[in-house]
Amino acid sequence: LVKAELEAMNLPNKNKPFPFCPKILFILDQNLAVCPDNYLEELFDYINARKIRWIGELTIMDKIHNEKLLRKMAVGSLGCLIGAEDFFNPIPGSPAKNELQRNLPEVTRYLQSLGFPAIYSIIFGTDNQDVSIFPKTAEVISKLGICVYPHLMAPRAGTPFFAQLVKEGRLRDSKSSHRDMTRHLPHNPKNMKWEECLGEYIHFKREVYSPQQIAGRFWRNKEQNGLQYAAALAAIEIAQAIGGIVLGTKYPKLLPTS
């Protein structure tokens, strides 16, 4: 189906130059790991032959043993979102994410050796976290040189977690527009104050995405895997840095004083 859509869009190939097309494919809300390996190998052969760049998401541990596939995916990738959620606390109902958590350094080094631009998605504000999660996560990012996309927990109406928050009086805001996972914290976390969580989140962004840290990872990534790899991950981090500045301007009193 993806190949059929690309053909219908008349994206460029070797025989049909189309200089005004950016040739970037966004694969949204589709975990590529659910697709069979042979289908993905054929798809990325097709994508690579047409020099199409792509951005998508993947449960990495479901495909970690297929080096051939990961190399093909790495060729034109401008970033692949990998759901980690938390680098320290167990993640109920997700064996693959728990396996990633246990083997994060090894998986990271392996993906870096393949030139696979991994963007680890993590979530702050869950009930099994306390305020120590922020400096611990920042330390892991610095140590491994990884790119991370941080989110704030966003309870959704109709879920057991949402009902629990209502029952316990911890739901602060039920506006759907505030479930953006980046600028609003709609509930009181269990093991930290709302002000602590949001303030440490802002501080985390300002620390991890400081110009010095972004530049350090950029030059290291460029040396190891080239400009496309380094620039793709740096672009994600620059956007996060801007988000931290905006939030810090909106909530200046929440920033830690020490």
Distance between the termini: 54 Å
Structural category is alpha/beta
Name the assembly state: single chain
Shape: globular
The tally of beta strands, per DSSP, is 5
Task: Please trace the helix and strand order, writing H or E for each element.
Answer: HEHEHEHHEHEHHHH
Low-confidence stretches: none
Strand portion, in percent? 5-15%
Q: Give the neighbour order of strands across the main sheet.
A: 1-2-3-4-5
Major β-sheet profile: 5 strands, parallel
Radius of gyration, in Å, reads: 20 Å
Summarize the amount of helix as a percent range. Answer: 40-55%
Average pLDDT confidence is 90
Number of helices in the DSSP assignment: 10
Give a verbal description of the structure.
This protein has helices at residues 2-9, 37-49, 67-75, 95-102, 104-114, 133-144, 160-168, 194-208, 211-225, 227-250, and strands at 24-31, 53-57, 77-85, 118-124, 147-152. By secondary structure, the protein is an alpha/beta fold. Strand 2 (53-57), helix 3 (67-75) and strand 3 form a beta-alpha-beta unit. The longest helix has 24 residues, at 227-250. The protein is globular and about 55 Å long.
